[in-house]
Amino acid sequence: MTRMIFINLPVTDLTKSMAFYESLGFVNNPHFTDETAACMVWSEAINVMLLTHEKWRTFTSREIPPMTSSEVMLALTCDSREIVDKLNELAAKNGGTADINPKQDLGFMYNRNLADRDGHVWEMFWMDPAAIPAAGSATEK
Q1: Ramachandran angles phi, psi of 103, nearest 5°
Q2: pLDDT tens, 19-38?
Q3: For residues 108 and 114, what is the distance between their CA atoms, to the nearest angstrom?
Q4: Where in the chain are the domains?
Q5: Which CATH architecture has domain 1-61?
Q6: Angle at the Cα of 30 (from 58 to 86), degrees rounded to 5?
């Protein structure tokens, strides 16, 4: 079996969150979707489970952090710089927030960060493997 990841995210409005992720190119998997949860597919290995707050609380008693906090940044690769830019534009047009952090252009790697409707942080990035600097040179000053 292929190893997969299912990222579970609590959301305040399941229908609007599904629409947001669909606008970025995620596809709904109806086999794992009901009125309390939706499985949004990015690739064969990457799935995002959107869970109502009530459903979330069946998995954990830990607090749902406020939208102004940041616990994790989820990074997804893109095929080009243009797609990175387009996803940020789409996020802003569909209820999310584009460029929540300064964009980064290292030449061989380009990224921009966006937040979904509930403040979950995503880093969309493109990288040219052929142009990656030698080990240690990217961090040297």
Answers
A1: -70, 155
A2: 999 999 999 999 999 999 99
A3: 20
A4: 1-61, 72-130
A5: Roll (3.10)
A6: 100
